Model the fold of this input.
Amino acid sequence: MSTTQSERLRELLEPLVSSQGLDLEEVEVDSVGRKRVLRVVVDSDTGADLDQIADVSRALSAKLDETDAMGAGEYTLEVGTPGAERELTEHRHYVRATDRLVRFQLAGSGELVARIIEVDDDGIDVEVPGVKGRRPTARRLALADVVKARVQVEFNRKSKNEEHAEDTENEEEA
Done:
């Protein structure tokens, strides 16, 4: 059984990323002209801040320098997080996307945009936004029915703190 370079790199780098309290989400090697780029995507349940990214980048760079995993040629190491519109492919991704708006591609029943409320081993509880003044509706999705899911960027959604402040103001006025 042959192993791709990305798989070998994942085996080499995953313990280092885990030791930093992060999950290794993706390893990708691309050729850009004569140079190669090694892209490493990391994440955690609480997200990854710039200091964590810098620490893991230094650790990965040192490990790669002491091995021949990238060969003799030049390469650039890029370490980052999945980004705002990440694709959800594993159970932990759905858990991390709780309270986020997600576009689901469902087997046999098309597309659905809904907010993840709760995730368990069997499925996802979502809230489908109401249309034209109607109330949102709850729905249960089986994980097996989700073909593809991607977090959606929301520019005008209030944060939990803003919602709580408004609720407090409304209670005080009543």
